[in-house]
Amino acid sequence: MTSAPSPPTALYWQYLSGFYPNLPPEVLASFTTCWEQTVWDDPQTPLDCNNLAVIALIEAEQAEGDLRAMGLEMALAALMQGVEMEPGHPLCVAHLALVRSLIGESEAAFQTAFPALIDLLQFAYTGEVFPLGLIYWPQGDYHLLADPTTIESIFAAATGADQAMRLLAAVLCHCQLVFYGVSGKRFLQLAAQLMPNSARFNLMLGLAHLMQQQWEGLLYLHQARTIAPEFAPAVQALYLAYRPLQPEVADFWLHHARELAEAQPQSLDWRWTSLDANSTFTYLPFERTLLMAVEPNLRSIVTSVLLAEADWFEAEMEFWREQLQPGMVVIDVGANVGVYTFSAAQKVGSNGRVLAVEPFSGCIRCLQETQRLNQLDWVTVCAGAASDHHGTSYLALQAASELNEVISEIDPTLGEAFEAITCFPLDSLIDSEGINRLDWLKIDAEGHEMQVLAGSDRLLTEFAPGIIYENIAGDKGSNTEVAAYLQIKGYRLFRYQPYLKNLMPIESLEQLQGSLNIIALPNQSG
Fold first, then answer.
1. Omega within 30 of 0 (cis) for the link into 8
2. Under a CB-based contact definition with an 8 Å cutoff, are residues 361 and 386 in contact?
3. Sequence-ordered list of residues with C-beta below 8 angstroms from that of 516, at least 6 positions apart, any chain
4. For residue 397, which of 518, 260, 295, 281 has the smallest C-alpha distance?
5. How far is CA 299 from the centre of its chain?
6. Could you tell me which InterPro entries the record lists for this protein (predicted)?
């Protein structure tokens, strides 16, 4: 690349280089023209407003607290000005939808993006020309477009209409709660059509099908691997997909992956190739430096999400990572394979403690392997279900372990799809594990939350930890019973606003609707 231009376009130059270090000359030339033609001090056109908003968003991304909020407000003001100048201007509307998605306003993002894309199709395919503009997509820990093929698809669009359509399609995928649901698959299909050379979108589309045993998903996995032959998640997904279907084909992909791994012996992406073909877990990188053992099948939500997105999808993970400090003590109830557990372990360090409570034997094996593999001696795996009593219960096993449920009696319709499990109150850990403080409690118990809390009275009374709990499990509605109980116990309830990192108070139980997780803080926490 040639020397950078002067501010404010120098900021975009730096941003673009970080995203796309080998920018083709023709793409560079088109962006240079955008920079030179933009009126920065007094925007005259919607495109000026769009470009100004993009610079404000980049500045906001690099800031924290009030400065981030100020940058976001500036960007929103510029985008709204552009829309006032020209209602429906494609790039202004696309960036407006993106901003709403980033701050957790998913429904508003969808309502902005979808009609805009539908309207744009007529113009895009009948020859009406929209000039190219500057494009923003967040860097940092937003992984949806975290592969070179997708970035190239977005930034190398030939026209402004192409830019806007691809950006709108990406936003529609981003604002879905989960990529593998009906709506998620629908918009992944759209994104893959608009960006056929995106390995990431083809991977996600393939996984979305295979999680529901729709074997045509194999086509998209093969396309992802063809686009990026050394794209580790695509190769691993092919191996896992064929493992129960055609073991001899799975062996082919394992052998191929081992050959690729030889050229990258230090890469965590390929460490799964060191495992035997009959291993009860596979490995995936997590938080850049951690290697996690996960279930070796694509019906597992955690396995497929980490393959697809390289991170856990819940917005509260950002809050979790911000709040946890060295030396803290954390209990993760319903740990599954340990996304929250091992994220916490990275933050609290060897002077802290993390207790992972999990009843399912398959997930217990994964937790123990991750603890061993990464030498996390301050993580304790507590096998069993947190409840309101000591005793034995049963775990109804679902196709995805994340949906397993504790039941008191065996349901004859389950056949052999259950496990006998040990139950215990969390309060018993005070003595058995020598707990003398508790900073955070995370609860994901698939409808068993009230029993968990009933067995945690002493922990809540003596230590008043912060709590993150699942508000919506499966097709159930909001967990108003848990919310009311915690309010009686002296807790205030919040939902989390990502990107701006705000806690939004919940003043009534009706405001719980639509929030997957709720954060509860004791009143004395200020």
1. yes
2. no
3. 177, 314, 470, 471, 472
4. 295
5. 17
6. FkbM_mtfrase (IPR006342), SAM-dependent_MTase (IPR052514), SAM-dependent_MTases_sf (IPR029063), TPR-like_helical_dom_sf (IPR011990)
274 in the same domain as 210: yes
Do 223 and 104 lie in one domain? The reply is no
287-312 in b/e form (b: 16+ CB < 10 A) is: beebbbbbbbbbbbbbbbbbbbbbbb
Q: Give the pTM.
A: 0.92
Distance of CA 386 to the CA centre of its chain: 26
Indicate the DSSP class of residue 484: H
Closest CA relative to residue 522, chosen from 491, 483, 479: 491
In a shared domain, residues 45 and 102: yes
Over residues 7-17, the pLDDT tens digits come to: 566 788 888 87
d(CA 30, CA 51): 13
- Tens-place pLDDT, residues 384-428: 999 999 999 989 888 888 888 888 777 776 667 888 999 999 999
Return the amino acid letter for 57. L
Final residue in a domain of this structure, among 288, 309, 330? 309
- Average model confidence (pLDDT) across the chain: 91
For residue 433, the tally of other CB atoms under 10 A from its CB is: 14
In the predicted structure, residue 3 carries a pLDDT above the cut 80 = no
Q: Residue 113 has which token pair? A: 């993006």
Compute the C-alpha angle 317/208/444, nearest 5°. 35
Q: State in Å, rounded, how far the first CA of the chain is from the last one.
A: 51
Query: Domains in the chain: how many in total?
Result: 3
Measured CA to CA, the distance from residue 234 to residue 200 in angstroms comes to: 8
pLDDT in the model for residue 4: 41
Q: How far is it, in rounded angstroms, from Cα 36 to Cα 410?
A: 71
Q: Alpha helix locations (H) across 271-315?
A: 301-309
Taken in order 49, 54, 58, 61, the sign of the CA dihedral is: positive
